[in-house]
Every structure is written in C-alpha cells, then in structure tokens.
Specification:
Elements lengths: L3 H16 L3 H13 L1 H4 L1 H27 L3 H22 L14 H9 L3 H9 L8 H31 L7 H24 L1
Helix pairs in contact: 1-8, 2-8, 4-6, 4-7, 4-8, 5-9
Length: about 200
C-alpha cells in the first residue's frame, strides 16, 4: 500500500492532469454547453470507463516492459515532463475553443473512445500512478478508487463550465487569462516530473 505522502503526490498529479484542457474535457464542456448539466451526467461514467481501461492496459504493459528495460520509467518521466511543458506553452499561446453548439452532441460511445485514446492515460500509467499499482491488486484498487473519486467532480466541473457558458452566466470570464493560469500550473508540474526523474 501507499504511504500518506505517496497518496498525496498521486492525488495532486491526478488533479493537475485531469483539470487541463484536452479532447475529453472539451467534449464534456461542449456537451454541457449543448445539453445542460443534467443530460450530460452519464458522460462522467463514459470518461471513467475509458480511463480505467486505458490506464490499466498501459500500466500492465509498462510494468512488464520495465523488467526488460529498467531505464524505461525514468525516460517516461522525462518524456512526460517535456510533453506537459509543451502543453503548457501551447495553452499559453492559444485559447481553448469549444465546439460550436450546433454540432452533434457527444454520445457516451464517442466520449469513451476519445478518452481511451487520450495521451493522458499513458501519462497516468507511466508517471503518475506508482508502478506498484500495476503489480499488486490492493494497490491497484486503492489507486483507481482515488482516481475515480477525483475524476467525478472534475468532469462535473467541466460539464458545468460548458453549461454556464451556454447560459451566458460566464460572460465576464476571460478565457485567455484562465488558459494562461492553467499553463503556469502545468509548467510547474512538468518541472517537478523532470526533477523526480533525474533525482
């Protein structure tokens, strides 16, 4: 099982990655924009299912690969740090665009597939979840429980954000400033990943 500090580090990593804009969060927000909060609630289950499958598959693969390639986990941490730094720069330069409200609403199937193919799943499996989570059932169940408990409110927040945009309640919000604030958080997180890989 994990120590209290390992649980705290896992939780922080999960939150930072889940709150960042990406394909899944954009679909959640656009569903909230078009369908409202209540009708979009089932999409939270689709996101959770997609991540559980993808993280589990990547995690098992990486644990097996690490036995043959012991340097792989450190390399993945550095690669993840670079990827997150790129995301931070990209977010700083461009505002998040939600799909037009006239587009077809996202169904559970399309959100599941988008989440299944989301690069964040590899990031979770390779750097944020401890390797022990994919080697022992109790650790796996605890890590996934923490993940599910954090994913649900964050997904709801993205749906609520889209619904609030659709209702005009967030007309005062400056998306560029929000984006730049998120990019700073991502940049700090990328440095911490690189630091942990090199020390």
């Amino acid at each position: 099982m994990f120590s209290a500090s390992a649980v705290a580090l896992l939780a922080v990593g999960i939150v930072v990655v889940l709150i960042t804009p990406g394909p899944t969060n954009t679909l959640l927000a656009s569903a909230g924009l078009r369908q409202g909060l209540r009708r979009s609630l089932p999409l939270v289950a689709a996101e959770l299912a997609g991540y559980l499958v993808a993280i589990s598959v990547w995690g098992r693969f990486l644990v097996q690969a690490a036995h043959a390639l012991p340097w792989l986990p450190a390399l993945l941490r550095v690669a993840a740090g670079v990827y997150i730094a790129w995301l931070a720069v990209d977010m700083w330069r461009a505002a998040v665009a939600l799909p037009d409200s006239a587009q077809n609403a996202s169904g559970m199937g399309s959100l599941f597939v988008a989440t299944l193919l989301n690069p964040k799943a590899l990031l979770f499996a390779g750097t944020i979840f401890p390797a022990d989570a994919f080697a022992h059932w109790p650790s796996y169940l605890l890590a996934m429980l923490i993940f599910a408990c954090l994913l649900a409110p964050i997904a709801l927040a993205w749906i609520a954000f889209g619904a609030a945009l659709g209702s005009g309640r967030l007309g005062w919000l400056d998306p560029a400033k929000l984006q730049r604030g998120a990019s700073v958080v991502l940049g700090v997180f990328s440095l911490s990943l690189a630091w942990s890989a090199l020390h």
